[in-house]
């Protein structure tokens, strides 16, 4: 381990100990070495004893910097693993860090584009518009040499030398995660290594800005000319692994309620459209923006009576297959119908839980957890909390929750919180119900059959002319296979006959020889009987088919 690595490790240890994070270590034989090791750092004391553990954890991660901040943000979504007092604190982590030098940003952008910025842009602002843990953004304007002359843009650039920092921190995270199962019996339930693997995948995706570009293009095309959602345009010819250039937008931050009201925004319609956008992405497109926290959502100020969302930062998206969508739709519909038997059976039918799952016990577990939720009016029930409850029950019956479903649940919680912040009287069930019911109808009956036939039509058109020839060839092959099977059966039959004859002749011969050998000893009557038996066995051998 290099000197810089040791310094980095010491900083992490110092931060965790100074916030008293070590105090949650259980006292058992597995943690004895750690507790003794803690005494070696006797000069580092908990300096925040008056604060709750969740707050101390958040402050520690914030102090450790970008990679740990993003880990905390991801962990805040895993309410299936952490209690609310910790998850709520981690959700407050802000991905805002000090910007790096604008001159360095300019140099890296020019290196990626292959020339001086003045070749394409004017008014490049070296002061960052915003700065986050992985990247920061600067503003500029296309110069008159470009087809889009005068168009304002935002240029996003990765932080310099971020890769070694991420590699070092991830390595340490994996080491810590490997210890977690040994700390207590509950340690295995946390599946710490799987959590870090999921985090690493997300982090690696964010290190290639072309992924964000591709996601933004797809989302933009999905909502092209939509009054509900606008995604800024990406200028692909200027997009690279560490630099992307996109349209600059102006909007009211969705969290600025006062500004929205001053702009006479239709708050009820805005809140309903947030839910509609989410369910449209999920059920129509199977592709949803999975990082829709308030910092990434704005409202177009020009359509206050017909409000339109503006979404940015598309680095994290979720993708669903038909099974995922059916799980979501049927779970919600069955839950609101209080049909817990259907919820349980659907999990087994979809293959989410083993086939031998005790459906009666499964149903009762869902009932015990979900029934108390109906103490609230339907309009106040949290969809995200319902999903979380379903996940928790299903996990006890050996269901492995998929990462895309966790992303979906996190996004749903964002949308719910946002909707009710904008319009407290929002009835999510009333808004979402048509999407769920319409989608389920589309999956069944004549309409579903016609839709699936339409999807297969290009394939059928391509292969239908070859069908007669293919059928004849298949029949010919089947005839050959049948003939080969008959030949094999005949050979097996001949072999069986040979073995039966051989056995009978051998048995008769052994009895005959045994009789000759014992002839002087045996009585004459018994010898005659044995000679007769050997003759009969021999005869049977000759007569066997």
From TrEMBL:
Active site positions, chain numbering: 291
Superkingdom in the source lineage: Bacteria
GO MF annotations in UniProt: ATP binding; protein kinase activity
Compartment(s): Cell membrane
GO process annotations (BP): regulation of ubiquinone biosynthetic process; ubiquinone biosynthetic process
E.C. number(s) listed in UniProt: 2.7.-.-
Keyword Membrane attributed: yes
One GO term describing the cellular component: plasma membrane
Pathway as given in its UniProt record: Cofactor biosynthesis; ubiquinone biosynthesis [regulation]
Family that this chain belongs to: Belongs to the ABC1 family. UbiB subfamily.
NCBIfam families for the chain: PRK04750.1, UbiB
Protein name: Probable protein kinase UbiB
Source organism of this protein record: Bisgaardia hudsonensis
Name of the gene: ubiB
